[in-house]
Design a protein that fits this description.
By secondary structure, the protein is mainly alpha-helical. It contains seven helices and three strands. The longest helix is centred in the C-terminal third of the chain and has 46 residues. It starts with 7 loop residues before the first helix and ends with a helix.
């Protein structure tokens, strides 16, 4: 999950694809039929699709001869992120402390679902994505909060944000450390395998 202004579309501009090749862009332009790619790991831009969590790309031929494309995350991820936004709202507006903690437990379960939707090999990235989504959701809610919000709701919101910020930061840094260690371990094993050849 990127934290800058880059998007899949803006980064794709830097990659050239063959207009007369066998890829989905060329096929859509040549046949005039919509092409859908559900396995982005085989594409020229597979690394970009992975980086921006694009799981499905649709290529729509236009009458001008150009091809419009749009990418989406997995349907599960979209549902989980919508549920996450709803739970954040409900959590802040809960009527009682018991309701607050019950919704908080549900929120943790949804964050876990957002994390595992990336798959076992990308769990660290999924954890960072779920925490980032949570913080973005709370930021969006903070912007929408009107001045007429009850004091108790504002207090819950502040407590939620204050509790999650250091936890999110610590967990995100731990996942970066775990990924760096895994990468170091793999390169060490590769070097050892080359020495034994």
């Amino acid at each position: 999950m990127r934290r800058d202004d880059s998007t899949f579309a803006s980064e794709s501009r830097n990659i050239k694809v063959k207009a007369n090749g066998r890829g989905p862009i060329a096929t859509a332009a040549r046949t005039g039929e919509e092409q859908v790619v559900t396995n982005t790991t085989t594409m020229v831009r597979a690394d970009l699709a992975k980086e921006f969590s694009i799981k499905r790309i649709t290529f729509v031929p236009l009458t001008s001869g150009q091809v419009l494309e749009y990418g989406t995350p997995s349907p599960e991820e979209v549902v989980y992120l919508q549920l996450l936004a709803l739970l954040i709202y409900e959590l802040v507006h809960s009527a009682s402390i018991f309701g607050f903690f019950q919704l908080f437990i549900e929120l943790i379960a949804v964050l876990r679902l957002v994390a595992v939707v990336e798959g076992p090999s990308q769990i660290a990235s999924g954890i960072r994505k779920s925490l980032g989504s949570f913080m973005e959701g709370t930021n969006a809610l903070e912007v929408k909060m009107e001045s007429g919000v009850k004091t108790a709701q504002k207090k819950r919101f502040v407590v939620l944000r204050l509790a999650m910020k250091p936890i999110s930061y610590t967990i995100a840094m731990a996942t970066f450390g775990a990924e760096a260690y895994s990468q170091w371990q793999r390169s060490r094993e590769e070097r050892a395998a080359e020495v034994l050849k």
